[in-house]
Design a protein that fits this description.
Layout: E1 9-15, E2 25-31, E3 39-49, H1 51-57, E4 74-81, E5 91-95, E6 104-108, E7 112-114, H2 121-124, H3 128-141, E8 149-152, H4 158-169, E9 173-178, H5 181-189, E10 194-197, H6 203-209, E11 213-218, H7 224-231, E12 232-240, H8 253-259, E13 262-265, H9 273-292, E14 300-305, H10 309-318, E15 324-328
């Protein structure tokens, strides 16, 4: 598609009143974004729906400076304005600071990656936010190595399904927790060595009985924290990426010292452009070969038309999904 034939306007999703419930999401017409130096313009074919989008919608997760006001942290589609390594017509998936819930989106050319061989553009839209998050937190901050054990909470979420597969690809053992026997079974089907129904079983006790954990990926917080610490092996790492059950925890410092434990955590969106570019290069070098080899497949739960973003958010909030929820333009 030649640059000169692009429309002036596009459909995007806005939040009525600036913040609100899922039904506040509605389509609007906006001018096409203009790429700056070093940025590509992508004709979006699909966009991922993520928990941070909900946080932004309710007013808790503002876009970083310079990012679009609209939601959407990951997309896949066709490059229509070239920059960096990309040419018009290339198919890419990309990590965005925002603006993915739209027909067109701009991004730093260094934050886009080629669609892995064997994946559809739709599937690839479910990769960037989750893969970057898991790679940065489990493999960089958590320093998970082959032969170690990773415990993943929220095992059937987009992050959970990705973390299970990436850890297995790296040669680690996986203990997964989920709420409900069905979700535990789904985690086992994805490759978890041990899957625990956290609504009826004590995951710390079971983890300890199976040799404990070296890394815990926790997006729950709250009362999970004490059990994470109990399940942790000496020298283990607990990595927080969210705190859906509460951001305040009680820490037994003696227990932490005895285990020489490390507690860390991070967010992805506020990282600067150079840091995201570094992360993108590391992900492409390490994770993309796993995808091509068939060790990692995005688990797509459902796909909604862009205009039905409100339904997609309601579905994510209902919590019954396995894997990713996507919007298709």
């Amino acid at each position: 598609m030649a640059h000169s034939t692009l429309p002036d306007q596009m459909t995007a999703i806005a939040i009525a009143g600036g913040k609100g419930p899922a039904e506040a999401l509605h389509p609007v017409t906006l001018p096409l974004p203009t790429p700056g130096p070093g940025q590509i313009l992508i004709r979006v074919e699909a966009a991922g729906v993520n928990r941070p989008d909900i946080a932004q919608r309710v007013g808790f997760y503002p876009p970083p400076p310079g990012a679009p006001e609209t939601m959407g942290l990951e997309v896949a589609g066709e490059v229509v304005h070239a920059a960096g390594r990309w040419r018009e017509g290339d198919k890419v998936c990309a990590l965005l600071g925002g603006g993915g819930y739209a027909q067109y989106a701009v991004c730093d050319a260094r934050h886009a990656l080629p669609i892995p061989e064997g994946l559809s553009v739709l599937d690839a839209a479910g990769l960037p936010e989750t893969v970057f998050t898991v790679f940065a937190n489990v493999f960089e901050h958590g320093a998970l190595k082959a032969g170690e054990t990773l415990m993943v909470h929220g095992a059937t979420s987009g992050i959970g399904t990705t973390a299970i597969q990436m850890a297995k690809a790296a040669g680690a053992r996986v203990i997964a927790t989920a709420r409900g026997a069905d979700k535990a079974r789904q985690a086992r089907d994805l490759g978890a060595d041990i899957a625990i129904d956290a609504s009826t079983e004590d995951f710390a006790e079971i983890a300890r009985a199976h040799g404990g954990c070296d890394v815990v990926l926790d997006m729950v917080g709250g009362d999970y924290f004490a059990k994470d610490l109990a399940a942790l092996n000496t020298g283990g790492r607990i990595v927080f990426i969210a705190a859906q059950a509460g951001g305040k925890v009680e820490l037994n410092i003696g227990a932490l010292m005895q285990k020489r434990g490390v507690i860390t955590g991070s967010t992805l969106r506020p990282r600067d452009t150079d840091e995201k570019a570094r992360l993108a290069a590391a992900v492409e070098a390490t994770v993309w070969p796993w995808i091509v080899a068939g060790h990692l497949r995005p688990q797509i739960d459902s796909v909604f038309p862009l205009e039905e973003a409100a339904k997609a958010h309601a579905s994510l909030e209902a919590g019954g999904h396995l894997g990713k929820i996507l919007l298709r333009t």
